[in-house]
Amino acid sequence: MACAAVMIPGLLRCSVGAIRTEAASLRLTLSTLRHLTLTSIMKSKRKTDHMERTASVVRREIVSAAKVCGAASESPSVKSLRLLVADQDFSFKAGQWVDFFIPGVSVVGGFSICSSPRLLEQERMIELAVKYTNHPPALWVHNTCTLDSEVAVRVGGEFFFDPQPADASRNLVLIAGGVGINPLLSILRHAADLLRERANKRSGYEIGTIKLFYSAKNTSELLFKKNILDLVNEFPEKIACSLHVTKQTTQIGAELKPYITEGRITEKEIRDHISKETLFYICGPPPMTDFFSKQLENHHVSKEHICFEKWW
Prior knowledge:
InterPro entries: FAD-bd_FR_type, FNR_nucleotide-bd, Oxidoreductase_NAD-binding, OxRdtase_FAD/NAD-bd, Riboflavin_synthase-like_b-brl. The protein is an alpha/beta fold. The chain is 29% helix and 25% strand.
């Protein structure tokens, strides 16, 4: 096993019936894509730039044109996008990210995919969620991007969950901080697709239980909480979540209250889920990922069962 589709509420989207027509019309020439890619890489100079941080990370060769066909505000600081991907050979594994090439913007973005691979297979779409920062690609997403804006994307990343049908059944513990939920939501959605496939076809990978621990400043910054709770309710014996808020100042709504803990995710909560059959996926700020990966190692969890990615 490598360790390394639910709709977003309110997301504007293309008509499913028009997808093939849209994809056929969305074609950047190979020379344009190559120029866009090389120019962006050469001009990405900041030490914190995505291209420099991930220079040694494996990427797919395909750079595909894509069109923005949906957008929504997921929180006061996070905007989600739905992209129609032109290249039929474009694919990804749950948990991976994309290099995000924007015409006219010299810096390359790096955004985790938050949708399931199944959505791409069925509708040729992927979903991203981008936090507002002063980084040029994020500024473009929040201030300039509109429906029908055209970009290019390329898949990369060694943080993913891609079990094969014959692999041993594993439990998953997903630990997210802030926008670190994005790749873990992709994994959670993929796990739900595997559960549906198993229930409908009596075949495919047999996944164990999935527990999501997710921490944010307050409930308004808990992204995709409705999607998460919908999955918990759909698979109550398989999927569970513990949502943490660290600086909540308003009253917590009745529908969320049973799932909310005020305060940080604790070592004890994670320790209680340690077993030989469990894989741990961690994504959040560097201090958080460092802390939990170290604690798991201290409790003799195999390094092969600890997968983490830091967001910056």
